[in-house]
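haha ok so turns out i had the wrong file open the whole time. this is the CORRECT one, sorry everyone. sequence first:
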Amino acid sequence: MSIKYVLFDLDGTLTESAPGIINSIKYTYDRYGLDHGDPEELKKFVGPPLIESFMKYAGFSEVKAREAVDVYREYFVAKGMFENAVYPGVEDCLKRLSDAGLTLAVATSKPEPFCRKILEHFGLTRYFSVIKGIPLDGEDMTKSEVIAEALKELGVSDLSEAVMVGDRDYDVLGARENGISCLGVLYGYGDREELSRAGASAVFDDAEGLAEGILEGRW
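then structure:
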């Protein structure tokens, strides 16, 4: 399988962003007088669009969920954005793929300005030809729409030459809606069952295996 373009999710795929996201959710819950309980339970906020998650997990109306996103960002912009770390092996994976001549991109449901700051902070920007997230006021934008914009900006004409990499079912389903395959990673916030159920073409335990799988076309 000849792949020329690889699109990466950010949270749970490139960076271990849960600490900053969880602290931002705690801050938001505290503002609304809600018990945030077990921090592990708050990991379900990592990845999906925030408005959807506040409605689903906090029981907020859409209007209240939109307000909550603004509260969340008070902490996230000040501190949470960089309570974060690059997963082991990820930078080496990006370098191997880039050195092999593949064109890399980021497609994330995180607001694009935050995404760019995070990638710059960790020195990863140089590996990506396209960095696509949602606008600051674009919380209704789906993962499928983000991937579509990234593919368009990359100039992909043959969809068989592109693949998405992500850790959650949203990544797999968004890729499928755009006619491309998705490779799942298990070091993030999803699990094998979630990724397989969504239709991931293959699932990898670590970034080293992911790089080898892409370069050798093993899926």
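The mean pLDDT is 95.
again sry for the mixup
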